[in-house]
TrEMBL record:
Residues 1-27 form the signal peptide. One of its GO terms (biological process) is cell wall organization. This is ErfK/YbiS/YcfS/YnhG family protein. The keyword Transferase applies. Residues 94-232 form the L,D-TPase catalytic domain. Belongs to the YkuD family. The active site is at residues 192, 208. Pathway: Cell wall biogenesis; peptidoglycan biosynthesis. The keyword Glycosyltransferase applies. InterPro entries: LD-transpeptidase, LD_TPept_cat_dom, Transpep_catalytic_dom. PANTHER family: L,D-TRANSPEPTIDASE, L,D-TRANSPEPTIDASE ERFK_SRFK-RELATED. GO terms for cellular component: extracellular region.
Amino acid sequence: MIRLIVSPRRSMAVVLTIFLTACASNADRISGAAPRPSNERVEDREAAPIGTDPMLMYGEKTDAGFHIAGVNTGKMNPEFVRQVVSYATDEKPGTIIVDQRARFLYLIQPGNKAIRYAVGVGPVARAFDGGDAIIARKAAWPRWIPTPEMVARNPAHYGPNKDGVDGGPSNPMGARALYMHKDGRDTYYRVHGTNDPGSIGKAVSAGCIRLLNQDIIDLYNRVKPGARIVVQG
């Protein structure tokens, strides 16, 4: 159980849909405001980024032969910089908690601390039983395949990609993906990167949990398969 300072409505059914295409917003400012996270004690929050300099943390890089564009940190909301925060929870270190309302993802650390990442989310669209799952596997530069349901719902949009899209800078899943399973089965929900930095901090028209590519690489390197993930509405 999570010991909240201001309790969220945990009874709300939590959900994410996997896609992706409408995750693009064509915005280049990463500055959207989000509600204050309920678990954080603002007066105790550490403002220190995880790294020496945000410009270096979010600079351009080459990864597995693919180019990752740098993020203009001058246009970036300082709250969205990857950083350590105080976070009151009974979840064990290594657990991921996603606060969809606040649009932050927390990787729990010892001593009531967490590494906080800004995320883009989607609307609650269908129930995700219990709000928790496990990270069954991880993938670098993942391939994306639309589900049959997605193709049936919008064949004109998803049909051309029904056989899948190879990993790379044009793939909307970005540089890394964490695959959520529940009760031994794939939920088809993912935590992944994005090729649209402007979607971070926003609730866009399709559901997914997306991070900046620089942040999903950092999270990917820290999270172990089998880690618990809790998604709050």
